[in-house]
Amino acid sequence: MRRTRKEESDDGAPRQYAGFSEDLGLYVSISVRGDRVTAVRLTEERPEGAKDEHPYLARILEHLATGRGDLRDIPLDLEVSPFDRRVLEVMRTIPPGEVVTYGELARASGRPGAARAVGGACARNPAPVLVPCHRVVPASGGLGNYSAAGGPATKRRLLEKEGALAKVKGT
DNA sequence: ATTTTGGCGCTAT
DNA sequence: AATAGCGCCAAAA
Questions:
Q1: CA atoms lying within 13 Å on the CB side of residue A95
Q2: How many other C-beta atoms can be found within 10 angstroms of the C-beta atom of residue A8?
Q3: Average pLDDT over residues A109-136
């Protein structure tokens, strides 16, 4: 297989790009293989050896800054279990400004009653922000938990920026 | 109104 | 191989 430019390679190690989000107070980094994103991370420290320019990264940072924009067309390549894949797929259709409960997402994924398992899928989400696990909240009100850096405080900022906080009970 | 109980799919002991 | 424990939920007590 001939490859003119490394950047267009579909295999091999993903390339990493990182930028800082003022709104989150965190670094956002993405791993890209070919033209697909394999991971997104939110971290306190800037990852070693990451480059800083990538169109997908720019769009993500833009979204974090404005709360607007649709990131749903950015192609993903995630290594997850079949159940998680299904859940993440449905999760990705939740538009900015909206929230759904874990239970609703379970039903929408064809697994009514698997609300808790959906929580697990969220916790393992390899691409936060692009797969908007922050838009999934407990039916009982409040924000629930958030696994990426900053925890629930980060979840709150994300929802606030998207104008979704009003739709969350008890906030 | 609050607490308990049983269900869910997966990962890490 | 088995169990515990998670970003939860709804029905029962």
A1: 4
A2: 9
A3: 98
Q: Which residue is nearest to nucleotide C6 (CA to C1')?
A: A120
Confidence of residue A3 (pLDDT cuts 50, 70, 90): very low
Q: Of all nucleotides in the shown strands, which has a C1' nearest the CA of A83?
A: B9
The token duo for A134 is: 């922050």
The protein residue nearest C5 (Cα–C1') is A120
d(CA A156, CA A161): 8
Q: Kind and range of the H or E element at A119?
A: helix A115-123
pTM flag (> 0.85)? yes
Sign of CA dihedral A110, A115, A120, A124: positive
A170 touches strand B (CB under 7 A): no
- Alpha-carbon gap, residue A53 to A71, rounded angstroms: 17
Provide, in whole angstroms, the distance separating residue A85's CA from nucleotide B7's C1': 21
Query: CB of residue A117 closer than 7 A to nucleic acid strand B?
Result: yes
Asked whether A128 and A148 are in contact (CB, 8 A), the reply is: yes
pLDDT digits (tens, 9 = 90+) for A36-83: 999 999 999 999 999 999 999 999 999 999 999 899 999 999 999 999
Whether A59 CB is under 7 Å from strand B: no
